[in-house]
Design goal:
The chain is of the alpha+beta class. The protein folds into two domains: 136 residues, Lipocalin (Beta Barrel); 209 residues, Thrombin, subunit H (Beta Barrel), CATH 2.40.10. The protein is 20% helix and 37% strand. An eight-stranded antiparallel β-barrel has the order 1-2-3-4-5-6-7-8. A six-stranded antiparallel barrel has the order 9-10-13-12-11-22. Strand 4 and strand 5 form a beta hairpin. About 8% of the residues have low confidence.
Length: 381
Amino acid sequence: MLRFKNMKRYQRALILLVAGVMLLHAGGCATTRIDQDTLNLNGFTKESFVNNYFKNKKLSKVEGIWRWLNGNYTIAVIKNNTGTLPEYEYLGVVIKGRMVKSGVVKLKINKTASSNVYSGVYVTFNLALPGPGMDVETTFLMTGENIIETAVPQIGKVAMIRTYPPYDEKKERVRGGSGSGFFINDNGYVVTNNHVIDKCKSINVVHNKKENKAVVYSSDYSNDIAVLKIAEKNKSFVKIKVNDDELGESIIVLGFPLSDLLADNMHMTSGDVSALSGIKNDQRYLQMSAPVQSGNSGGPLLDESGNLSGIVTSKLNAIAVANYTGTLPENVNFAIKSKYLIDHLKANNVNYETSNSLKEIKKSVIAKSAKNFTVKVKCNN
């Protein structure tokens, strides 16, 4: 009997040991090392990577120095011309981190057909047993110019923010791209954000997959509003809400986010009005919880009756907040209130219609109607 009890204790201890080893393996660090001579560096410091890999060079979207928020790592993602792991186009090398030496390969990355999606590997480390780390296949998504997100088994969603090269908002504006907009009347007038079009050499409005040349009819830099004009008329347009917005009110966002990553048809997200002012109590803006991405700028923000509450303008600068707090903020987004649009339309003699309807309409019905007046705005440099 005594021998049987001892055997059960032994089995329990063995199970606990195996479970502990597996847990440590899932949450630890990489052991794969790049030989220092192969990299031709004097050290694995931030300065070494900047001078040897980044400074005065044209970098791809994924290259740079990143802060891995969940693991407290600083990682240099470099083009892989090291002679190590040649099957990968980029390597994420640890500069510094918790319980890991500099020079460790933490990420192994390859490009895909989409410029915002990368396939690759996250390397975990077994703290209990010596030896190489374990490769965990994953997908890396660039959900912003300076944000990479992925999901790691037993850890969940993790994120990195770029710390070098530094974020330059003016440079982002000059580069252009695409945004969203909406018809404000049936005479070919389209509303969008000023920052979507202010550096464009030419502009196209895409409606129902048909492209139309557009010109800037009027713009307001301070309130980030622009009105475009196309030659063709349109049947559908949005009506502007005249009732005041309320805290907690349900809202819907329409637009064309991440058009080179996601499907190029209109997308809809929903949420609530989470504040009646913007950053530092800026009364021009509404804060909302509906998720938005690059490309949503200029799109319509609708209430639950399908009327225009505002123009989607921006999301909180996640880079600055994450650097300050160590946490990546989610769903803190802003829209310019519709009353500022009304002031702009009046000042520039652009016709519009209003609505005081409070009747709640199903989101699917609103989205179906909004497809007829929501457009993609393409900036050509």
